[in-house]
Amino acid sequence: MSKQYSDLSAEGAFYRKKLLLSMIIPGIFVFFMWLVKIIEILFELDLSGFGIFPMTVKGLPGILFSPFIHADFNHLFNNSLPLFFLSVALFYFYSEVALKVFIWTFFFTGILVWIAGRSAWHIGASGIVYGLASFLFFSGIIRRYFRLIALSLLIVFLYGSMVWGLFPGVYKNVSWESHMLGFFSGVVLAILYRNEGPQRPVYEWMEEEEEEAEDGGKREEEARGEDEVEKGRLGD
Hints:
- The structure is a single chain.
- By secondary structure, the chain is mostly helical.
- It has one domain (2-192): Rhomboid-like (Rhomboid-like fold, Up-down Bundle), CATH 1.20.1540.
- It has nine helices and no strands.
- It has helices at 2-22, 24-42, 62-65, 73-93, 98-116, 126-143, 146-159, 176-192, 204-235.
- The chain is globular, with a radius of gyration of 25 Å.
- It starts with a helix and ends with a helix.
């Protein structure tokens, strides 16, 4: 009984530690988002000029800086919560590829917005939010792993209404291009990294069924071969 309790305690400690580690990078990222806005307010600055302005040299730095710049605290708050939650889910469930996915979502979305966005300043982290939500949803479906599919369904339940942000004209003064291109980035990354990270477990009974199916196929082929030989003999 004591051994079983100690095993459960050790397992619980492991998952708590994993959860805390999964919060580090998302927490740092969100901290800098808030720090930038506080600096803007304290020093009466307007940093929107560091956003993305498509197809211009002056808009290139925005690929790096725009996710940290927000129009107001409401805009910042609306991006902070989903970004933190989705990033923690990414680092917790996809720890092997999480950093690569996060970085690629960051840059891939920004580059696409710079190429295909409207002639306006695009700021905010919503493109990354859509990219992470898209990756988590489609990755779970592609891998066909029930735990990750459950996460996909949770994403739909919590953020399903985000789909309206993909269409132009639904929300005023919103970069729907960032949403759509972030979403696209997530789909692409889910496909590219489908063979890396957590995979659907293969149980012994599944392996036995596969082996039996292979053996059965071999026996059928051998039987066909013998029949063909017999037919050939009869024809002679």
